[in-house]
Design goal:
This is TetR family transcriptional regulator. InterPro entries: Homeodomain-like_sf, HTH-type_TetR-like_transc_reg, HTH_TetR, KstR2_TetR_C, Tet_transcr_reg_TetR-rel_C_sf. Residues 38-57 bind DNA. Pfam families: TetR_C_24, TetR_N. This protein is mainly α and 201 residues long. The chain folds into 2 domains: 1-58, Homeodomain-like (Arc Repressor Mutant, subunit A, Orthogonal Bundle); 65-198, Orthogonal Bundle (Tetracycline Repressor, domain 2). The protein has helices spanning 18-32, 39-46, 50-54, 60-83, 89-106, 108-116, 122-147, 157-169, 171-174, 183-198. The longest helix has 26 residues, at 122-147. It starts with 17 loop residues before the first helix and ends with a helix.
Length: 201
């Protein structure tokens, strides 16, 4: 994750930083669409000049790359956690789903941007490819859990994976942190609904 004053060459600039630039860029991308957002739009929102933005990043595309990579890196870190854990595949799958909910809550704006890219640029195509890789890893874990007899054998593993993360990803459409539902409550609800219906009986 990018630090509060980090820049590719390690420099910072008084008054604002790359973190605040990313946070603002993602908000404007959501409001106007990535293609409909110009560096001038970002400069106006931040109250700075375009050259000040270029102090931190060379292009709008780099802002997009940093933003979607933030979400993807967090999700792949969850997969690395699962790979270091022992125990039944169903427990590791439970961990991946729960932690993915936590990532979505912690990085909601960035995950939302990731889920809305469509492969219209090199950065977007790379992000879509990494998303598919993540989905593939989840599918492998689902298959492993099914082979262990922990998941219902009458549901295709690929479909199970899509349904699980369809539910997780749908949170971006309605979850807001100030609605009184904290991260633990949300993660508990998702995993209970998912796994009470998926566990073999």
């Amino acid at each position: 994750m990018v630090g509060m004053t980090d820049r590719p060459n390690g420099r910072g600039r008084p008054g604002y930083d790359l973190e605040s630039l990313l946070q603002t860029a993602v908000k404007v991308f959501h409001e106007r669409g990535y293609d409909g957002t110009s560096m001038e739009d970002l400069a106006k929102r931040l109250g700075i000049t375009k050259s000040a933005i270029y102090y931190h990043v060379p292009s709008k595309e780099e802002l997009l790359r940093l933003s979607v990579d933030r979400a993807l890196d967090a999700l792949f870190a969850v997969m690395e956690e699962h790979e270091s854990r022992e125990g039944p595949a169903i427990d590791r799958l439970h961990h991946v789903v729960r932690r993915s909910v936590e990532v979505l809550v912690d990085e909601q704006a960035f995950v939302t941007l990731l889920l809305r890219v469509r492969g219209n640029s090199k950065v977007e195509r790379r992000a879509v490819a990494r998303r598919r890789e993540f989905d593939h890893l989840v599918g492998q874990l689902v298959t492993e859990a099914e082979r262990e007899g922990s998941l219902r054998p009458d549901v295709d593993p690929a479909l199970t994976s899509r349904l699980l993360f369809g539910m997780v990803n749908s949170l971006i459409e309605w979850y807001r942190p100030r609605q009184g539902l904290n991260t633990d409550d949300l993660a508990d609800a998702v995993t209970k609904i998912a796994f009470d219906g998926l566990r073999a009986r």
